[in-house]
Design brief:
Blueprint: E1 11-16, H1 27-35, E2 38-42, H2 43-48, E3 57-61, H3 66-78, E4 82-87, H4 97-106, E5 112-115, H5 120-128, E6 129-130, E7 136-140, H6 148-160, E8 164-168, H7 178-186, E9 195-200, E10 208-213, H8 214-217, E11 226-230, E12 236-238, E13 241-243
Parallel strand pairs: 1-4, 1-5, 2-3, 2-4, 6-13, 7-8
Antiparallel strand pairs: 8-11, 9-10, 9-11, 12-13
Helix pairs in contact: 3-4
Length: 251
């Protein structure tokens, strides 16, 4: 990535800023932010990087305005600006990379670079120990863009495949029972004692973790800042840590 190439055609960086702690943002992301003219993003995420982008033009907007942010970023880039479109975690994991690339492709604009970030599956796992030490999948419980029946199918198949499962967006004000519903699906396949864990407010103040059995998981105080981990058949709890061995071979 050549940060000094400020061609008249403009450029868009789609940047995953990680969980919020500046120490957990990659050096590549910081460098891209410092090189840009304009930063666009959801206000909550903009607030997390104010110190890095001081003096930059900023475009802030609320939730569910992702497409509008992409379109504004594209217009600015076409006007010759270097634009940073930011999101939490990793830009390619439920982030802004795909909508920005789709819109840019539609408009014939190709100078879009994706800057990776630390997604919650990784940062939350580090807080818990090693819950995804073997094959795992990530499933969002938000049915805003995915039908609930399809989400349930993916949960069932992940359980049948003995994958470690990471659940994003486990609950919100309008979806307070979704984690409990997901647990009901898992309990039709997995044992009630299956080790689980969660990480909350990753990389921010008041962060916390917990471990429990699958039978207890549906009752945790979960919200949109919570990332949930369900172990495979080899996962075990050691104190406050959730550990999944790297393989199935017993030595």
């Amino acid at each position: 990535m050549d940060m000094e190439d400020r061609s008249h055609s403009g450029k868009i960086y789609v940047i995953g800023i990680g969980p919020g702690d500046g120490l957990m943002m990659t050096g590549q992301a910081v460098e891209a932010l410092r090189s840009c003219d304009v930063v666009a993003g959801y206000k909550v995420y903009i607030d997390l990087i104010r110190d890095v982008i001081a003096g930059k033009e900023v475009i802030e907007s609320g939730m569910r305005q992702e497409i509008d942010r992409c379109e504004k970023s594209l217009k600015l880039a076409k006007d010759g600006k270097i634009v940073a479109l930011v999101c939490s975690g990793d830009a390619g994991v439920y982030g802004m990379a795909s909508p920005m690339l789709e819109i840019a492709e539609r408009e014939g604009f190709s100078d879009v670079e994706i800057i990776p970030g630390v997604t919650a599956a990784l940062s939350g796992a580090a807080m818990l120990g090693a819950p995804i030490g073997h094959d795992f999948c990530v499933i969002s419980l938000s049915d805003l863009l995915t039908p609930w029946d399809l989400i349930k199918k993916r949960i069932r198949l992940a359980c049948e495949a003995d994958l470690c499962i990471v659940l994003y967006n486990p609950a919100s004000r309008n979806r307070s029972e979704y984690l409990k519903k997901a647990c009901e699906v898992m309990l039709t396949i997995l044992p009630a004692a299956r080790p689980c864990g969660y990480a909350k407010n990753i990389g921010r103040s008041m962060s916390k973790t917990g471990v429990c059995a699958l039978s207890e998981l549906g009752d945790i105080d979960a919200d949109m800042t919570t990332t949930v981990f369900v172990g495979n058949s080899r996962t075990y709890i050691s104190g406050c840590r959730l550990i999944t061995p790297r393989g199935y071979t017993i030595k």
